[in-house]
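Possible regression after last week's pipeline update?

I re-ran a chain I had predicted before the update to compare outputs. Posting the input and the new output here so someone can diff against the archived version. Not blocking, just want to make sure nothing changed silently.
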Amino acid sequence: MRKDVRILLVGEPKVGKTSLIMSLVSEEFPDVVPYRAEEITIPADVTPERVPTHIVDYSEAEQTDEQLFQEISKANVICIVYSVNNKKSIEKVTSHWIPLIIENTDKDSRVPLILVGNKSDLVEHSSMETILPIMNQYSEIETCVECSAKNLKNISELFYYAQKAVLHPTGPLYCPEKKDMKPLCIKALTRIFKVSDLDNDGILNDNELNLFQRTCFNTPLAPQALEDVKNVVRKNINDGVCDNGLTLKGFLFLHTLFIQRGRHETTWTVLRRFGYDDDLELHQDYLFPPLKIPPDCTTELNHNAYLFLQSVFDKHDKDRDCALSPEELRDLFDVFPYMPWGPDVNNTVCTNDQGWITYQGYLSQWTLTTYLDVQRCLEYLGYLGYSIIAEQESQAAGITVTRDKKIDLQKKQTQRSVFRCNVFGDIGSGKSGFLQAFLGRNLMRQKMIREEHRSYYAISTTYVYGQEKYLLLHEVFPDFDYLSDADLACDVVCLIYDVSNPHSFEYCAKVFKQYFMDSKVPCMMISAKSDLPEIKQMYGCSPLDFCRKHKMPPPQSFTCNTAAVPSKDIYTKLTTMAMHPYVYSKIKSNHHARLRCMCTCNRCTFCLCQNFLNSELLQTVRAKLYAVVLSRSPSLLTNTEAFSSLQIHSYCHHPLHVSQADLKSSTFWLRASVGATVFAVLGFAMYRVLVKPR
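New output (post-update):
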């Protein structure tokens, strides 16, 4: 809505322009009329539309042509005044004033015109028969008002219509020649209908109509009023009402009727509530509401936004197969001015066997858009009508801005749900296969992907300690010398090399040493194509020794050349490392630290118990106990040859001298070891449950 309205009055001398302004202000006809009235401002609280209004007079005797042109360019609406008893002043409307105004206004910004027939008190007949052909000739003319400054007839109405012509113009909505709404208006109202049709059945039922009414006019319709509206539609057109609900045809007819009866402010109220400007385009302020994002913070959808997107999915999943077919997807995006998702999206998120985006894939793509380009996400939510249907102030209400990652490191916990993993590797190392395997596609399915539909992103969910998290994989182009800040900004790094290529690991080692060796970002080495014969890497040390030297987890074997769906365990490990980077930092800073399990957290009961079971103390006790048992029952060696040989190997690495006293106290050692193990497990469990949360 405009902040103010500027009305300019022009016309031939002596037609009563100044008298009209003075009669409006003083509410009486002036005895003495000056050549030109000073500009006046009517406060917002005394105008029907609650908008400040500036009224400007023009006098040929006091103003130059240049001043007139300037006033025309500044005006929002121009009233061309003529005298109903002066034919020459009427002729001047078309021969002089309308061409002059058109010539001095911007072609792209149409200025509405109002024809004002003054001095109606001096004649008994109307001038409308003469004026109507002029109105039909020029689409810029909004309306014609006959009035009398002397009798105060239609003075207030004149300026009300002038104000209305600016705030609720007829031109963008309606074509008088065709007696129908213009295509842009029909397109906008069709989108509004589809957004308001919550169950996507092509009909606005009573609940949907009441929600629409409450959204646009802040009040529901009474049951009888609702029935009266339907009856009007039934009487005038067929198929306007179906199953006691309003169809799109009936919805458009109602707005045509409003405009034809001079109530186009009703249609404009609806259009502006759904984000449209005076040119019937969605306003930039509606599509892109302000959202402040501090450095080192990320953006995610909040719970309310996910609920809204779920309802949109359910609305368009007509066959209830938890996937969107191409037709259903086109129907969903029909309220957009363009198709936002290309074929690459099907290779970015999970799909079903037919290649259709699943419910999980649908939410994943929205999560990806929010994380990478939140402005684009705000725009998309605007097209879907999020702020209207969810009854929020703007789309920004559906976005959560996470806190600074430095605070997460300090507090050793994070509230984020989306984690980014940048995947590095030389050409042909298996990066694309690694991304596609995350989406459940083995090598056979990956071969069906067309090169032009390839995606450098993959996103899906993983579960860490029972919590659902999104892991976003990004394949970084293997150009070692031109890695951007975006390529390096992530929560966890994945370095992939091909076990069958002797030169593949060298690239990973260089990237790590150049960019991540002194970083706090967790890194994991992946030995891809593990189904192929492993070849020694042509580097100074083996991948395993490299990882040990730099306090990294050992290389993780991976292959997507499987008959079944590739395992997601490795992606869960990556997500865990991204969630707890402070553990990785602690490991790197401690020279003697050892990563005991690939959970990588070293906080959970499993990790603590695993570390204890691998400790030197328990290894010594186990070896000593086995020595005693074997000396008591030599036959056990024969019965459990395979198992005991493993333990003897362990015993050889922990040499002990078994004395006679040791053999006599075997019962003591058995009880002591069992008791120590039970005590350790229970102790760590109690520590996790009771002490740690405090």
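Follow-up from reviewer: compared with the archived run. Confidence is low (pLDDT under 50) at residues 591-602, 632-664. Marking as no regression found.
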